Amino acid sequence: MQAGASYRLDLDPPKKNVFVTQLDAREDEAVPVYPLVQESAAQLIEASLHTKQQTLLLHKEVEGEHVEEQLREKRAEFQRRMDACSVKRTSLQRKQQEMKDRVSKFEKFIQDNESKRRRAIQKYQMEVRLKEQKKLELEYLKKELEDLTNKYIYLKNKLDAYKKYEEFLMQVVSILPEDYLEVNDTKLNSLMMRHRTLSDTNDSLIHNIINITDELEQKKQEMEQLLQEHDKLKLSINSQLSLKQKELEHTQSHNDELEAKFSRHKLDFRSRLAMYAQIIMAIDNIAEKCHHRPDPLSTDTKTTFHKLKTIDDCITEKTDIVNMANRGGSPGGSSPNRYSR
């Protein structure tokens, strides 16, 4: 569709509006009423039920041409921007190449400067370490010098303080007899050695006395402990002895009771034994008297049972004789049972 083409809108012939000017118009008259139009023309075209399809198509073609015009403008603007970007890219590549060339030219210079910088840093570090080491050595030597100075002053003061003792010892040596000291070096050294020997001997004796005193205290403590243990053992033995004494008294009382009981049993046994002997003697005498007929066993060899049986037989026989005498002494009569009592 061309941009300069003209369009013509075909509409139905408009109807005349009828305005009501009389309030008392009759209701039976047919008067058409039209509403007021408040929408725009485009809305009327879109919403109208009587709009034709051709009118809508023309409207869409107009909108499409407008959009194509905007698209052509955007393409032209995009092409202009792409051309500007190409120019900028070419300029940037040229600048990058120039920078690379410059870097390649100054690379050796930079390497030389870097090596010089490293050597300077190493030299500086070495000098710093050497300086610190020398500083430490200086501090150590100063301290050692101060210690030696203090030691010298101390020894000098000590020598001055001991000077009077040396003079005193020299006076003592001059007073001592000649044979008192064993002179190996000088009399003063011999006297000092003698004093050292006596001092060591004194220290040894004091140490021995201290050891003996400690040992004596230890022995005293051990003796006290032994005495305490002895007292405890003595108390324990006394308690056990009292218990054993009570047990002994109880045992003695029990033994006395047993002895009294044994004495009573012994007397009873003796009386019973005497009674038994009398009974045996009576049995023997009666058996001896009843022994009137011949018997293969003598009275001494018979047992008590046989003797009692003999006595029983004798009594039975005597009883039979008495009964027979009481009945008249018929020899043919029946004799009673000899063993009946």
UniProtKB/TrEMBL annotation:
<feature type="domain" description="DUF4200">
    <location>
        <begin position="57"/>
        <end position="174"/>
    </location>
</feature>
<dbReference type="Pfam" id="PF13863">
    <property type="entry name" value="DUF4200"/>
</dbReference>
<feature type="coiled-coil region">
    <location>
        <begin position="131"/>
        <end position="158"/>
    </location>
</feature>
<dbReference type="GO" id="GO:0005856">
    <property type="term" value="C:cytoskeleton"/>
</dbReference>
<protein>
    <recommendedName>
        <fullName>DUF4200 domain-containing protein</fullName>
    </recommendedName>
</protein>
<feature type="coiled-coil region">
    <location>
        <begin position="202"/>
        <end position="261"/>
    </location>
</feature>
<keyword id="KW-0175">Coiled coil</keyword>
<dbReference type="InterPro" id="IPR051147">
    <property type="entry name" value="CFAP_domain-containing"/>
</dbReference>
<dbReference type="InterPro" id="IPR025252">
    <property type="entry name" value="DUF4200"/>
</dbReference>
